[in-house]
Amino acid sequence: MSDDPQIVIDSVAEFLVHALELEEASSDHYDELADSMEIHNNLKVAELFRKLGDYSRQHAKEVHARTEGIELPTITPWDFKWKCPSSPESFCMEEASYMMTIAQAMEIALFNEVRGRDFYQQVADNTANDEVRKIALEMVEEEGWHVEMLREWQTSLKEEPPLEDLDPPNMPE
Amino acid sequence: MPVPALKAKDYKSGIKPVWCPGCGHFAVLAALTKAMAHLGLEKENVAVVSGIGCSSRLPAYIDSYGFHGIHGRALAAASGLKAARPDLTVVVAGGDGDGFSIGGNHFLHACRRNMDMTYIVMDNEVYGMTKGQASPTTRPTWTNSKMTPHGTGIPRFNPAAIALAAGAGFIARGYSGEPKEMTRLLVEAMEYPGFAFVQVLSGCVTFRPDQRGWKEVVHPFINDVPTRDRIKAAQIIQADEGKATGVIYASPFPVWQPDNEQVTELSLLEEEFCI
Amino acid sequence: MNDNNDVSQSNSSFSVAITGSGGSGAVTAGRIVLEAAARCGYQGLMTRSAGPQIRGGESAAMIRFAPGPVECMGNHYDLLVALDWLNIERFADEIPLTDKSLILCDPAAGDVPSQLRSNGAEIREVPFKVFASGLPEGRINMVALGAMAMVCGLQLEALEASVKQILQSKGEQVVESALRALSLGYNHDRRPMQAPLSPADQQDTWSITGNQACGVGALRGGVRFVAAYPITPASEMLEWLAPRLEKLGGSLLQAEDELASINMIIGSSFGGVPSLTATSGPGLSLMVEGLGLALVSETPVTVVNVMRGGPSTGIPTKSEQADLDIALYGLHGDAPHLVFAPLSIRDCVFTTQWAVQLAEHLQTVSLVLTDQSLGQSQAIIEAPPATEMPWRRAVEATPDRDYKRYQITADAISPMTLPGTPEGMYTADGLEHNEYGTPSSMAADHREQLNKRLNKLEGFDYGDDWAEIEGDGDECIITWGSSAGVVRESARKLKQQGREIRIIAIRLLAPLQRQKLSQALEGAHRILVVEQNHGGQLFHYLHAQGVLPKYAESLAQPGPLPLRSGRIIRVL
Predict the structure, then answer these.
(1) Which of B10, B41, B45, B81 to mutate to test the interface with C (most CBs of C within 10 A)?
(2) How confident is the model at residue C9 (pLDDT cuts 50, 70, 90)?
């Protein structure tokens, strides 16, 4: 994210729409991964993604609560101010695989959570609006807590070898 | 009481996709539902039509009317539907094999017929559903299929060039790794009055894991796009290696749409046979 | 091909053939004769034959008229009108003559070919060319027409009225000249060949081809969208339908191929508009995968297959009933559907309407097997009455939240929602599915939906229209489609000889009405299955269905020559 141009959001309403979109996209994304893993019988990883989806949903709910009484602008899907191609917590789709291990799943999650945290941090750094900064920093703290938690999980994970597909796709020997 | 606006999520059917985790098609599904939400489409007035292949599973995942037909014939079914029901928003989805190989003829004629519909081809340069054979867009030297162990040895099909030659008025290329941009392309395509063709580079993580590298090579067009100039569009398409994204060509053409009013009764028409 | 057993050259009908090379106007003359016959109170039939040239080759118009229904050509021709002799040998097989026949020809065209002399027909010369060249824009076909009318006893006034009707678009001068030519030919040699046929009561008559009649039936059945690809001999149906669909608020889409046309009508029908396509054998072959899709997704469609000589490109301009096998068995998987065959040109109206409305009601595929001889023949028929049929597509306009597109119901028909209906969204699928339409590969779902698709067809009461049954003799002919005409003629002739023949002409071929057919066969101690193909396709089908006794016989004659009553009578 460091090479992205500066993100400047100076209105609380605009910021909340961004936060809402980020958290909702994130929960949708994790849900989708969880569904997909379930369909492919990778139940442990599915459980992890389901849990992460729940966290994001909880976040979205909290953001939603903050929008009470605020008239929210409509932002077209491609006009959100994050510079990455999708929303910050919904990247790295193609790194997923039906054979992925918990550790690999954790890496994707960590990557996304860090990007989410960084987005809020940038907003806080660049805004001229104190209220926006205040909320953004609260979110940085929450996302930071997620990141920490994920790191703890990660270190507590037992070393496990990458799974091997014993019935590999039709590739030449 | 005003009906609350639908969100992207509301356009998903709840059926869990059979796609592999990491498949680019998830991003197309997300972008399409975002585009539908952005356009405020009423779900019941949308029909998503497809053929056969991984990507052709899409209609079931959208909460609208859908037709999951047979291999290669999605554009034909969609054309009949649109001819009979001009009031519907028709979206056609499929893959590179479905659209450019077995359905190639329909692709040509749908381009020139220019009915008002959006055709999304999720191009992963491989037949996924049949487990990894070369498709018309596979590079000739790709040897990872047992069916073509020496590669296909024949040049790739250039979808944008052929769409242009066949008379399509809207040609765009997107990338599953850029869902935000893809959403914009799909909205523009759906707003375009006529046949809008969107090729989406949508990687296959299972049979073409090499396509994870696409994010390093996909880039926006450096040319001044979109153009309304056919000759310029042809140059842009031919000059590019197939990994540049954006709307390439957008030029309005007369839309073909029968929409006749009844002006007589059958019994009167039958009088022509009377002696 | 000479039949000794001939009874056609009697006063019950009159058969005339007009031949000539490209541009000589044989076909126009034929149309005028047919229409004049209609004006004289007759019914009739005109078929055409042409050489392989795209345009301008030799062509022949064969006309037969009679006081009652005419459903086939006779065994022989009473009259041959030769406008010239170029390539006439090509038609010799198709236009059998006897020593009772008459040949009208122009001495200026040269000698009568020996092939035609050999049958002993009388030759009467009329100077067509001399008469025509004496008139401004004089045409030999009009001179011949006049001479012909005298020979066959048609009233000059009827002929004049038809000339005015058919040539009016060509301008007054042409009509005027034609009327004078007509008169010259008519008065040249005033010896009629036979006493005029006794005219029937004037009734509401139509002049129509089988292809047009299918078009009328389709429109009566509610078809408002057609997608199709041109093919001989079905194209005229499409050409007739296109402008008329527009006037009725519908449309016809010329598709890029037959794969497109079948899938287009599946799309339009999914949208709620009764839809049809018309084709011939090669086109049907291409459509078969689409038929399976329509059947499994329960999207009603009707396909009219105007059969021609097959397999492959075969004999595109000639008739054959050889597509029964593909119509019955062409689909992969267990794929019950409806197969119909109109029994005459007039019946094309009823049967096509029935097929469309049953496809709609049963949400399935209807195949209608007509053929070139029905499709491209022009007929004078008693106007088919408008038939009100109650069968419509069951549409669910107010689905509840738990709407099941493929719900198992008592009659196995599930009301369908149409796009635009809130809460009724579903994805139609060629994949096997459960009641909701969700793809499923579960054995239970497969069995349930297979049963549903079978039961809705087997459980439906098709009434008495499944066949036309005539007579109650011990000798029985079973036939289908266009062959019914010549079978009925054979039975009439045998009746004159005191033999009563029972005819079962099957209109609904699938699902076969086994019980009704067995009942209809009761007491028959001789059974002959008559059809125009090489393999005896109906014969074998009926055996496979277990409705034929061992002693049943097959009379299967392939195209391109038409089945003639003489052949059938000989076999019996």
Answers:
(1) B81
(2) very low
Nearest CA in chain A to B5: A74
Any chain B CB within 8 A of the CB of C243? no
Q: Give the separation between CA C440 and CA C451, rounded to whole angstroms.
A: 15
pLDDT at C5 over 70: no
Q: Strands C59-66 and C43-50, how do they pair? A: antiparallel
CA distance B101 to chain A (A): 21
Dump strand ranges (E) for C21-82.
43-50, 59-66, 79-82
- Is chain C touching chain A, with at least 3 CB–CB pairs below 8 Å? no
The candidate with the shortest Cα–Cα distance to C45, out of C21, C72, C23, C84, is: C72
Rounded to 10 deg, the angle between the A130-156 and A12-39 helix axes is 20
Predicted ipTM > 0.95? yes
Tell if the CB–CB gap between A93 and B177 is shorter than 8 Å.
yes
Predicted confidence (pLDDT) at residue A171 exceeds the cutoff of 60: no
| Number of continuous H segments (helices) and E segments (strands) in chain C | 18, 21
DSSP SS3 for C556? strand
Please write the tens of the pLDDT for every residue from B159-169. Answer: 999 999 999 99
Half-sphere exposure of A20 (CA within 13 A, CB side): 19
pLDDT tens for C254-297 read 999 999 999 999 999 999 999 999 999 999 999 999 999 999 99
Query: What is the C-alpha to C-alpha distance for residues C133 and C350, in angstroms, rounded to an integer?
Result: 48
The answer to whether B22 and A42 have CB atoms below 8 angstroms apart is no
Evaluate the CA torsion angle C462, C464, C468, C473 in order and state its sign. positive
Give pTM, 2 decimals: 0.94
Give yes or no for a contact between C526 and C36, defined as CB atoms under 8 angstroms apart: no
